[in-house]
Predict the 3D structure of the following.
Amino acid sequence: DGPFVVAVDGPAGSGKSSVSKAAAAKLGFAFLDTGAAYRALTWFATQRGIDVTDAGAVIDAIADFDYRIDTEPGRQRVFVGETDVTGAIRDPEVSARVSAVARIAEVRLRLNEIFRGILTGDGHDGIVAEGRDITTVVAPDAPARILLTASPEVRAARRAGELDGHSVAEVAAQLHARDHADLQVVDFMTAADGVTTVDSTDLNFDETVDAVIDVIKAAR
Ligand code: C5P
């Protein structure tokens, strides 16, 4: 038997990254942030001077894309080759371009292969993977599948709190634009069959982590 897989999807600013990481740490599970891989590929292509709307060029770049991550929840560094891109992939420039990379079907296929290798790999009893299509495409057979949502207002306010010097209105507009683009590719706003919705709008961070852990425990 492979590791126990927990799949978590949701929109930008739903808190799924920090909540999933905290839940993984509490359970002694590994953690996989799939959005970080899309971001790292976006960073890598941009670094090479590639226009991310040029699908052919992005697909060609994957051949040299040496993506390395640490799945230990407390040590989330992301590397492309020898370069630590942990901070760079959160840059608003990357956020603004990543949807163009994520809509390339061949990119999704190739990254999904990497993700499935990590999920089924050894070295962990369980793993929490979060993104947009984990419950539906990457790991539809996972025993625990969760859609983490929050109202658009709450998501924008939380994200604005993370990004210094940006107004809530500005952040709300960026989140809306990215969600709109991403929704053309995969529906992460509706829970698929068998997926449990956790709405964090009226929950604080710890309450959200507990709600997610309750779903995981019920599935174990
Ligand atoms: O989760 P995060 O906001 O870091 O994801 C960055 C981007 O990566 C998303 O806006 C989306 O375009 C893409 N993504 C995706 N499928 C996933 C995870 C992320 O398309 N499973």
